[in-house]
Amino acid sequence: MTGPRPWTTLEDEAIQDCRVFSVRRIRAxxxxxGDEHDFFAIDSSDWVNVVAITPDGCVVMVRQYRHGAGHxxxxxxxxxxxxxxxxxxxxxxxxxxxxxxxxxxIVPLGAVNPNPALFSNRLHGFLARGATRVRxxxxxxxxxxxxxxxxxxxxxxxxxxxxxxxxxxxxxxxxYELDAESIDGAVxxx
Length: 190
Prior knowledge:
Elements: E1 8-17, E2 22-29, E3 36-43, E4 47-53, E5 58-66, E6 71-75, E7 78-80, H1 87-99, E8 101-102, E9 105-112, E10 123-129, E11 132-133, E12 146-151, H2 152-160, H3 167-184
Parallel strand pairs: 4-10
Antiparallel strand pairs: 1-2, 2-3, 4-7, 5-6, 5-12, 8-11, 9-10
C-alpha cells in the first residue's frame, strides 16, 4: 500500500465528560517511524443542520448567542441527535424547536465529519421542503433564538460578507447547492 497507513492504537482513555461531548486521550504508534504519540479526540452525539426553504423560496435562519464565539450568530437551525432519535427526526425537532417551523418533507443532503482531526461524530444535513410556521418558538432555558427569513441569494451574500461564518452551516448549504436542481426542482437564485 502506498501513502499514509493507519496508526496502531495502544491506549484509548476517557479523560473528561463535558455533558454535550467527552474527550479521549489516544496513545498511538506511527506505522512509519514506530514512535508513540498522544492524540486527543472529541466524542459527541451526531449533529444535524437544516436548510429549511419556505414555499416562497426563503431560507429559515436563526440568530442566537454562541458562547464559544462570544457573539450573536446567524445560522440555519440545528443541534444534537438525541438518544433513540434518527437524524431526520432530530432535524424536524430542531427546526420546530428553534424556529416554530415544520416542513412538508425532510430530505437528507448527506453527512460530513466536522473535523476528522478531532471529532468522531458526523453532521447530517437536511433540506426541509415547504417549511411553514406552525407555532411559536419554544426555546429551552439555555437557548434564545430569533427567526429571520432570507432569500437564498441573500444567504450567499451573508456568507461572502462573513456575517454567516459557522462552518457547519456553510457545509450543509453547500450540500444543498450541489444537488439543488435535482432535489428541489429549482433554487430561487434571486
